[in-house]
Amino acid sequence: MSITVNNISKNYGAQKALDAISFTVEKGEIVGFLGPNGAGKSTLMKILTTYIAADEGVALVNGYDVNSQQKLVQLSIGYLPEHNPLYLDLYVREYLAFNADVYRVAKSRIEEVIQLTGLSSESHKKIGQLSKGYRQRVGLANALLHNPDVLILDEPTTGLDPNQLIEIRNVIKNVGKDKTVFLSTHIMQEVEAICTRVLIIDKGKIVADKKLDHLISADTEQIIEVEFDYKIEEQLIATLTNLVSYTNTHDMIWELTFVSDKDMRSTVFDFATANGLKTLQLNQKNKNLETVFREITK
């Protein structure tokens, strides 16, 4: 196991930030760590990176205990915090060279991470001259510098434009093939694009831990939007089988929620035909990670 969390709890005064949470992450997994603001995401990441200590429980990173083997944990991880701390007066290569000395890695590694994170065109500049997106790249390059086994990334794509987003996502996916990546973000599309598994935390507790495709497809609930050719009464709509809720969104347009293993569009079409109606539009609204997240954490 690259990351093992067992009954970790953390309190800030009367507030319980983490409440006896447990999970494991294997090598080669890219795990998206999601939760509302204040759910405990950053607290856990700070515990895993040895910045703060848990009140209870045990956490291991790459087999090392975060409480008793802090230096070994730090050597095993590459960490990009949400608020990326950088020396703004240093040049990009100068900053990476300083950290290469700290980690005692070969200077040739500096060029490798500059290429990997797409920093070549900006590497001659001072960090303070860079855009927020390029500063994020410098932070990611620094996290990768010592070729760690585990990457812990807190909001890694903050401030990136759409093109940079795609590039950095590809970097994370590529390095994630032989590393463990634990990624916190508020951007659901980010998780859908690069993660294989999702952990959702709410009020300090893990409320979901599933493979991404299983999380989205596990529910048999379907939402169908239908427009008929004239207005009908809700008593008639309520006769549809497997219908759990319905909303008349506009005149002849209804949003229908079913629970069923089969595609209910054919049932809605047959219902319309049986009642002398025509369907002007009939669409199934696919669930995505965002809708699942809202349902779990509401």
TrEMBL record:
- UniProt GO MF annotations: ATP binding; ATP hydrolysis activity
Please report a single Pfam family linked to this protein.
Answer: ABC_tran
Q: Which residues form the signal peptide?
A: none
Domain (ABC transporter): give its ranges. 3-228
Q: Which UniProt keywords apply?
A: ATP-binding, Nucleotide-binding, Transport
Q: Which SUPFAM superfamilies match?
A: P-loop containing nucleoside triphosphate hydrolases (SSF52540)
Top-level taxon of the source organism: Bacteria
Kindly indicate whether the keyword Ribosomal protein belongs to this entry.
Answer: no
Family according to the record: Belongs to the ABC transporter superfamily.
The record ties this protein, via NCBIfam families, to: GldA_ABC_ATP (TIGR03522)
Q: What is this protein called?
A: Gliding motility-associated ABC transporter ATP-binding subunit GldA
Name of the gene this protein is made from: gldA
